[in-house]
Each structure stands twice: as structure tokens, then as C-alpha cells.
Amino acid sequence: MSTGRRHRPPGGPHPQQTETDTYNIIPVHNLLADHPSLRYPEVRAAAAALRSVGNLRKPPYVQWTPSMDLLDWLALFFGFQYDNVKNQREHLVLHLSNAQMRLTPPPDNIDCLDATVLRRFRKKLLNNYTSWCSYLRKKSNIWLSDRTNRSGGGGEADLRRELLYVSLYLLIWGESANLRFMPECICFIYHNMAMELNKVLEDYIDENTGQPVMPWLSLAGDNAFLNSVVKPIYETVKREVESSKNGTAPHSAWRNYDDLNEYFWSKRCFVKLKWPLDLGSNFFVLSSKSQHVGKTGYVEQRSFWNLFRSFDRLWVMLILFMQAAIIVAWEQKTYPWQALEEREIQVKVLTVFFTWSGLRFVKALLDIGLQYSLVSRETMGSGIRMVLKAVVSAGWIVVFGVFYSRILSQKNHDGRWGSNEVYNRLINFLVVALVFLIPEVLAIALFIIPWIRNFIEESNWRIFDMITWWFQSRSFVGRGLREGLVDNIKYSLFWIFVLATKFIFSYFMQVKPLVVPTKELLKLKNVHYEWHQFFSDSNRLAVGLLWLPVMLVYFMDIQLWYTIYSSVAGALVGLFQHLGEIRNMQQLRLRFQFFASAIQFNLMPEEQLLNARGTFKNKFKDAIHRLKLRYGFGRPYTKLESNQVEASKFALIWNEIVVIFREEDIISDREVELLELPQNSWNVRVIRWPCFLLANELLLALSQAKEMIDAPDKWLWYKICKSEYRRCAVIEAYDSVKHLMLDIIKVNTEEHSILTVLFQEIDHSIQIEKFTKTFKTTALPQIHTELIKLAGLLNKPKKDKNQVVNTLQALYEIAVRDFIKDKRTTEQLKEDGLAPRNPSAMAGHLFENAVELPDLTNENFYRQVRRCHTILTSRDSMHNVPANIEARRRIAFFSNSLFMNMPHAPQVEKMMAFSVLTPYYNEEVLYSREQLRAENEDGISILYYLQTIYDDEWKNFMERMRREGLVKENEIWGDKIRDLRLWASYRGQTLSRTVRGMMYYYRALKMLAFLDAASEMDIREGARELGAMRRDGTGSERPNSTRRSLSRATSSLSLLFKGHEYGTALMKYTYVVACQIYGTQKANKAPQADDILYLMKNNEALRVAYVDEVPAGRDEMDLLAFIPTGWGMVLIAQVLRPFLQGTLIWEAVMSVARMYEILFGVIVMTPLAFLSWLPGVQSMQTRILFNDAFSRGLRIFQIITGKKSNDEKQSRRVFLLCSHTEACWRFDAGVNGLRFHITSLKLSLLFGGLEELAESIICGEETISVLV
Q1: Whether the Cβ atoms of residue 426 and residue 406 lie closer than 8 Å to each other
Q2: Which of 479, 867, 1082, 1112 is found 20 to 30 A from 141 (Cα to Cα)?
Q3: Order of strands, edge to edge, in the sheet holding 1069-1075?
Q4: Does position 1090 have pLDDT exceeding 60, yes or no?
């Protein structure tokens, strides 16, 4: 799943991987690497367990190195690919380490892999295989001791064996390609390979060779598993798909994945398919040919009769009710139960059983007609069942007819319905009907009590198979998937209401009103019709036309009743679950004050590991707590002040959301300041709510203070505190103005001391609750106006110090002349410290030399000034903040999710890891410069279209670019082209947009991991640091938007991380993009490949999975075509030998000569090798074979190099295949005798280079016998 990996034969050494070859892969093979995930002891313990090979028998023919582990051992024995081993090694290590991290209580030794973790993982991973073996009544090939199965204990050998079983399954799964769509096929492969693994582990001896058993795949060459197991089955699937004619062929004419997978639901796969795979089995025969394997589960026959067959229960119910309703309504009683009191009507109603049995017979005939192609030699039982069902259904018609005729005959005999004989025969009919209804009653009972049906389906007892055979064929999948009892009751009640309403309406509004007109029409005689009269002297056709529209409505209106009741049920569910309650910004304002508690309750629960959250008591407490949070009935949120950790955590999360909105350009810099929840600064005593919540609150408080002139402080403050946002707005505005005015005046000045005394006097009056008695609230609007002017002057790009001084002087005059109730003289003001000692200051020079404005680089100061100015000036309610619809939708979704009924979130380290897979073929990754500029036939480019559709987002983007250094708009096509491409791509159907959305999971996990481990001191200090480091309009300290636009570039919150957050998030979340043709794109240097590589480099949690095609060499046709060409090159080179010898060309000629010598031996000598087994041919064959003239064809290399054939010192090499042992023997013939070497190759019967073997072994003899 990395870029740059290449194929390697399983027996060869590991290729040297460089850091540039792979991206975002956890290096579990190298525990010394500097990777955040390797810091966890659980990861190191799992990797160390895999390297514990112990005394396992080493694979032959390959040099075993200490760096290899159990996965390499399996790959060498079973022929798995090297990249598959690397992927599954990381896969397995992450699974085991995550499971051990979730273990509660933690193991005593965290540096070792816990046996319980491995046992649970093995059972979960191999659960389908275990069920498959039980279903087929085959013994599992997982050979573990009873002690290991019971307790997960056992020694190192048991742990290693369990790891081998798990690793083998993962390696099979990782290399099975499309066979993963056939899980039982994988079970079949695993079953046989596990048996071979057991034989290797138990040191079985081959009876034929007397050597230790070797898996047959170890003798099948490179990539043995892929070529010998996966490829034959895959090619069968491929041929079946091709025979489907792109889905236009009949469903019965070809097999899909389900049909092929169902072949492994019976023991015939072991008998016919065998192991090693018998390629001559009928499994590999196409469905279009004879002797193929037929379908076993389902065959689709396209017919309108499927409308009845698929919904037969609904049709039966509607038809039977219509019949009964007509019979009852024909008596014209007020209510139906009044008509049913008569015995004659009761007997007539029993005719519904005739209709019912007839409909069953029709259903049985449709089963035969639509599923006849399903019957084959493998599914003969299905054909027998369909025929028997038709016979039984027809038999029920006859039985009901016999018993019903007995009732009528007895009534005719007695002349009345009330006789005892008629009653007895009626009882007999009801008994027969009860027997007829037993299957339906049993089905209802099993539906209401689901655990009984689940037990029957999941059990593999033969008695249950015999009982359920009549109802359905035995199936491996879909067993025990019934809903719970409560859900079944809800479902039943829903349909009871729907059907009861429909039948009541149909009886009283459709059927009954037509009875009287129908009777009147039937009474009419001698009616002349203009159309052809089908029934002479009868109005039956008119009656039929009268009932026809009613019948159509009757069969259709159940959909209307279902729609009505489903809407009502959905509304009730949404009402009780409070779905979508927050739909606009006004409702958001009402609930925002409870967000911090909701986040603390859902995402960061206290003592999560100690409380048993699953008990009924805790669930009830959670429900009560959620109601309190939702409606504010619990702890008053007004007591939550800014110094609490809960508020700081919520501020970090909320501000991260706002930063993401700004990174996506769906809000502007101004909206960031209105939406963010700033950290505590300027000694503000309350939570600093977002400005859009405090809008107009200060003005409302001023109006209340102006109206309540003589009211006591308690009453005025009570009115203000009715709104939490108003209370916070007043306190924050006062604290901010106080800090602002004292900050812009020099400390050791007389003006600074005057303002300090003034604010102290105000604070004291508020403390003793005499503010309204000491100061005039009517002067507050004047002070408010001057404060707005002061904040506006400080917000201007060019600061006018003189105007600031004038504004401060005006504020001072209002404060000492109009604001204080008790008029004070100048001397009194001097004595109180509210006037300067110098008389010249009172003459207009106050604050002139005392004002010192902060430097423009102090962004934090001016940011707070802008916030203060917003609180002072906002007059509207800011319901349109944010203005972007997408931002409002996300905020509403986030707000609603906080109050949903969701499980408590564990710590990130304790959560289950998850992965997300996105398929990708050849779609756009990032829009290129040319694509953005190219115009269509209407003269409209992609960029122009996006600028028009997303006008506000384009303005926000340009605002961000200008803040990051953009001067002219045309410069966007220069240094900022990457940002432009990203902006456009995030608003199109591109892969980069999907990747960015998926990376938000990773970003959120990092933040939650930090909050899980952070202490109160970390939260407070971190919040204070973040508040101090804000240097731009987005709250991020990094100006490079290209880096910030992806997950590697995080917001300022990442500066608080301690390092473990990255490792935790990478272990818990992986995003995989299956780029099917990425290898081809990379080879062709397509721009998509560069863009995908860019995404990988900028997203740690992103993986790219692709198939890399590597040429395996020339095929047979190329080799055969090379023979004449090579011979011609050899002849030309022999002529030019004096000129070429000693050059590089001569070395190439010698290589061609060697190749030609081998090919000549294969093509010419193979038939002779077969003929040598025939009597009478051996002597002739040896004479021809060792003839000096003929053997020159086998000595091209000697001819071209000028070496003599009788050189006894020259060693000869002969390749001879022993067909009985399927191994290749290498003979080295020389003067010292004959040496034998076994290799692990499996070739055709091959002779070559036998030129003078006889002279080497038996000198002077003319013939030689070679015995295989």
C-alpha cells in the first residue's frame, strides 16, 4: 500500500527500501526508526512476537536471516509476495497492539504480547472459517491445545502457532484480489493451507520421498500462491463475467460471485476441486458449456409474475379479505360481526380456504416456472421440494373441497344449518383448516420470538435441517440475523395499525357501498346494451365494470396508508430523539451556552474506565443528564466561568472548528472574530462568548439602565442577568474598557492614577451595591458614544494621537461632571485623586503627554480592541453570521449532534481503530492551470464558473491570499498557483476534496488525544499561550496556506501537542485510496500521479493502494521467434570474430550463444526424451544423441568461443528433471565423478548439454544408459 514497491521473488533477499520509496507507512519492521507510533510498548511487543521464530524448521534453498519473522517464514513456504508480507505485517501489528491497548485491566507486562489479546483476535478473525467448518461438519484445522482455547494461556510455542494461523489467513486475504468477494472460497483455501502448515509444524514425513513434508506451493516457483491458487479461480470469474455479455445474458447462463461462492457451501468442493487445485474440475468449466457447475441459491427469471411471487403474502391477504368482505357485506348488516352471527354466513366465509389453497398452488407453479433452471445435479433436492409443494397445494384444494361438500350435503339432508351433524362437520372442517394454518402460526410465533429461530438457523443439527428443508434450502449466510423482540413488536404494531386502517376503510367506504347498486343491477331484466352482450339476459359485465375501479383502488391504496403512517412514525421518532431541533442561528443562540457541558458529557466523560456504562442505572442517569443539558434544567451554566477547565476545553474545540472554516474560505476574517471563542485576556472575569452571541446585548442593558434610574442595584442587575449573554456582555465591556484605557496611558503618569482611582470608585460602588446611588445611569449613553469613538480611532490603520487625546478628555469631562451624582468641586476632585494637581492640565492639556499607543505589531491588543468595538457598536442580532450557507449547515449539524443519544466516547487510546477506503480510477485529483483557464464552447472557464457560484468564498480566498503576501490579483497565477488549484479543486468532484474531508477524522483524533492526556495546567497554560500567539486574522500563526490546507499543516492547537497525539491518531485511523491505475500513471508520468504523491506527502494518515505491473520476462512465442534470429546472429558473429573479440559486443554474442544452446536442447531433445522410454528406440536414440556431427548443434557456445570438445578439465552441466519426484537435479560432470544437487524448480522434462557425458563417466564406451 505504498508507492514505489516492486515485486520480489519470495525466496530472494529483501530489497533495500529507501525513505523516498514509501510514504505514511508505520515501519514495524524497524523498531529503531523514529516514528511516533513505535513509542508505544504494545506495538513493539506485537512486532517482537512476530520475530520469535524459535526452533521452527527453516525453509530450504533460501538463506534465513535474523531480520526475518513468522510472516517471512510463511511467505517462503507458501509462495506469498513480498509486498503482501509487508502490508500484512503492519496490518497484524496494528490490530494486536490496538487490541492490547484496549485491554482492561491492562496486562502486567506491557512489553510482551498478551495471549488473551491474540486469542480474542484469532477467534474474531477466523470466526467465519470456524462457522464454515461447523456448517460443513468438517473438523477445523486450527490445532491448538485445550489450555490455549480455554484460557488463552500456553507457552511460547502455542503463542507462535496461534500467530502463524492468524498470519496465514491475513496473507491469503491480502493476496486474494477479487476472491475476497467469495469469503467461503477463502475459507476453503485457508482450510487446506492450514493443514499443510500443521504438517510442517508437526514434522510430518512424506511417504513417497521419506523427507519432511513440504507444501506443494513451495515447489511451484515464484509467486506460487498467486499463480497456482488465485489466478485459476480469478480467470474463471473473469470468463464468467465475459460470458454475461455486460449483464445482458440471462441470469441462469452465467455465474456471479455469489454463485461461485455457494459452490463452497457443500462438501463437494473437497471431493471435486481437491487440493492442490484440480484444474480439470467442473468448477472451472463455463456455465455456457456442458458439465458445468450449476447455480445453487437463486436464479433470476425476468417476468411480471415476479410481482405476485415476491409479494405473495400481501396479495393473499388482500384477496382473502376482499372475498370475506364481499360475503359479509352482501347481507347488508350495519356491522360485519352482526352478519357473522348467522351460521350460513360463517360457512360461506370458510370458502376463503379454497382461495388460499388455490393461491398456494399458483405460488408453487410460479416457483417451478421461474426457478426450473436452478435445478441441477447439485440441487436436485430443490427440484423435489418445488414439485412436492405443488402436489401438496393441489392436495389441500381437494381436501377442502371434500370436507366443504360434506357440510353442504349434510345441510341439504337436514334442511337447516343448526343441526348437530352440520355443526360436527363444520368442526371437522375447522380442524383441517387449523392443520393448514400450522405453518403460518409457527412462522408468526418464530417471528415474535426471534431467539428460537436464530437458534434453529445457527445450529448445524441434522434434525433441524430436515425440519426446515420444506421451507427453504440450507444456506450458510443470513443465518440468525433476526431483529430483537422489541423491534419485532414495534414492527408488528406498525403494520397492525396500517392494515387495520386500510381494511376498515375498504370495508365501509369501498365494498359495502357497492353492495346495493350491485344487487339492483342484477335484478334488472331485459336491458339493451349498445356494446356486445357477453352474458345473455344478465348485467354481470356492468357489475364487473362497476367494481373494476374500486378493485384497482383497493389494491393500490395500501401504499397511501403506509406512507401516512410512516410519516407519522418518523415524526414521532424524530420528536422523541430531538433530531434537527437546531435549525437556525436563533435556536443556536439559545443552546450555545450548554455546548461545553454537552461536549464534556459526550467526548470527555469523567472516570470512563471505572464506571460500568452499560448498566440500566447508568443509562437512566445518562438520559436524565441529556435532558438537563438539552433544556437547561441541570446545573446553571451561568456559574461556569472563564477560569474553568471545561470552558477552556470547549474553547479549544470550537476555535478549531472556526479555524477549519477559515481554511476552507467559507468564512471571512471578520466572521472569524465574530465566531471565535477567545481565550481569557485583559482580566475579563466571565466567559468571552463569541461576538455574534453578544450582539445588541450591551445596548439592551444600557436601555434598561436608562429606564430604571432610581431602581436599586439588585433589581437592575437581576433584570440584566435574566440573559446570560447580556450579563457577560456588560462585564466584558467594562473589564475591556478598563484595561484598554489603562493600557494606552503611561503607567507612572498622573492621568494613569486618575483613571485608576475612578475605576476603583466604580468597583467599590458595585461591590457595596450602591452604583445607582453614586452614579447617574442617564450618563451612560454619552460615555458609550465616546467609547465607540475611542475604539474606532484605535482600529484605524493610521492612528491620530490628538483625536485619541480629545476623546479621552471628553470621557473625563463626562465622568467627573455628569456621571457622578454628587457634584464635586475641583478641590474635592483633587483630594479624591480624580483631578490633576497641575492647574495647566485642567486648562486642556490633560492626557496630552500621557497617551502611548501600542505598536502596530501587537496584533493581540488590536484584536481585542476590535472585539470591544464590536460589542459596543453591534445593534442587530447577527442572525446572518456566518453568511455562507455551508458554514451554517455545518454548525447546525455539529450543534444537533451534541445532544444526540450516542455512546460515551472512550479515550482515543482505548477506541477501536478504523479505516476508510475510497476507490479511485482516473478522476481528477487537482485541477491544473490549463483546466482552470480553458474555456468551453460558451466561453466559460472552470475558474470563472466557480468564482460565480462561490462568490463569497472567492472573496474570502483572495482576502487570505492578500494577508499572506499577495499584492496584485494576477500574481495568483504565479507563486500562489498551488493555492488556487486547491481552492478550485475543493469545490469540484476531485479526489483532493475527498481526501481533505477524510483527513478531518485524523485531525479530530489528534485533538481528542491531546485533550485526553492534558492536565488542567496544560489546558490553562495552553489556552493562555494560544491567546498570546495570535498574529493573523485566522488565529493561525502559519502564513503558508498550502501547508495549512492539508492535514500535515495544523492550526495553532498543534503547537500544544506533546508528540504522542500523532502516533495515537495514526494507529487508530487509516484512510486508503485504491488508485487502481496509479502504477501506470506513475510510469507514464501523468499529472495525476504527481498530484496523488503530493496528497500523500501532505497527509500522514493517507495510504495509496495500487497494483504495480512488473514485466515477468518473454513468453513462449517470443522465445520461439528468437531461435532463428539468434542462430543468424551467431553465424555472423563467428565470421566477424577476429574484429569483435575483446570488445563488449563479444560478451553479448557469447550470451546469445548460451541462450541458443539451451533453447536447442529444449525444443529438439524433449521429444527424444519421451521417445527414449519406448522399447527399441533407446539404442538408436543414444547413437543419434551422442553423434559428433549432431551434437555440434548442442555446442554453439564452444564453437563460437573456439573451445575444444575433448577438454576433460572443462566441467559440464546437465539439467535433468526427475518426473517422479517433481524436482530438478543438477549434474556437474567432471573428471572427479558425478555430483547431485537438488533445486526447488519444477520444469518440463528437460535435457540439455549432454555432449560428452559418456566420456566423463565411462571412457571409451559408445553408449550410455541414463536411468530416471
Answers
A1: no
A2: 479
A3: 914-920, 1069-1075, 1102-1105
A4: yes
Residue that is written with C-alpha cell 461461485 in the block: 260
Ranked by mean pLDDT, which of 253-267, 480-494, 688-702, 1013-1027 comes out on top?
688-702
How would residue 978 be classed by pLDDT, with cut points 50, 70 and 90? very high
Q: Which three cell numbers stand for residue 653?
A: 474545540
Question: b/e per residue, 446-462, with b = 16+ CB within 10 A?
Answer: beeebeebeebbeeeee
Check whether 11 has a pLDDT greater than 60: no
Contacts of 229 (CB under 8 A, 6+ apart): 189, 217, 277
> Which long-range contacts does 702-711 make (Cβ < 8 Å, 24+ apart)?
702/780, 702/781, 702/784, 705/777, 705/780, 706/777, 706/778, 706/780, 706/781, 708/772, 708/777, 709/772, 709/776, 709/777, 709/778, 710/772, 711/772
961 and 1045 Cβ atoms separated by less than 8 Å:
no
SS3 65: coil
DSSP 460: -
> Helix, strand or coil for residue 1218?
strand
Identify the pLDDT of residue 633.
54
Report the DSSP beta bridge partners of residue 1102. 1071
**Range 377-382 average pLDDT:** 69
Q: How far apart are CA 610 and CA 377, in angstroms?
A: 60
- Return d(Cα 536, Cα 154) in angstroms, integer: 92
Residue 1130: pLDDT band (50, 70, 90) is low
Q: From residue 965, how far is each of 154, 968, 1042 by CA, in Å?
A: 66, 9, 13
The single-letter DSSP state of residue 272 is I
Identify the pLDDT of residue 1108: 77
Percent of all residues in the chain with a pLDDT value above 70, rounded to a whole number: 76
Lowest mean pLDDT among 1029-1033, 1105-1109, 1141-1145: 1029-1033
Q: How far apart are CA 889 and CA 661, in angstroms?
A: 12
Give yes or no for a contact between 174 and 75, defined as CB atoms under 8 angstroms apart.
Answer: no
Residue 1219 has pLDDT above 80, yes or no: no
CA dist 447 and 482 (Å) reads 8
Long-range contacts of 620-629 (CB under 8 A, 24+ apart): 622/904, 623/901, 625/601, 626/601, 626/899, 626/901, 629/594, 629/597, 629/598, 629/601, 629/899
Tell me which H or E stretch contains 328: helix 312-329
pLDDT at 16 over 50: no
- The whole-angstrom separation of Cα 1088 and Cα 985 is 13
Straight-line distance from the first to the last Cα atom of the chain, in angstroms, rounded to the nearest whole number: 47
For residue 492, pLDDT over 70 is answered with yes
* Cis peptide, bond prior to residue 105, ω within 30 of zero: yes
C-alpha 748/C-alpha 759 separation (Å) is 17
Q: Alpha-carbon distance 341 to 1234, whole Å?
A: 108
CA distance 538 to 710: 98
Residue identified by cell 482580566 is 683
pTM of the predicted structure, to 2 decimals: 0.75
| Residue type for position 1020 | R
Q: Rounded distance, CA 270 to CA 195, Å?
A: 13
d(CA 528, CA 532): 10
Ramachandran bin of 223, using left for φ above 0, alpha for ψ from -120 to 50, beta for the remaining angles: left
Alpha helices in 874-925 (DSSP H): 885-897
Q: How far out from the chain centre does Cα 582 lie? A: 28
- Three-state DSSP state, 1090: helix
- The pLDDT tens digits for 761-779 are 999 999 898 888 888 888 8
DSSP-assigned states of every residue in 820-881: BSS---HHHHHHHT-S-SSHHIIIIITTTTTB-PPPTT-HHHHHHHHHHHHHHH--S--TT-
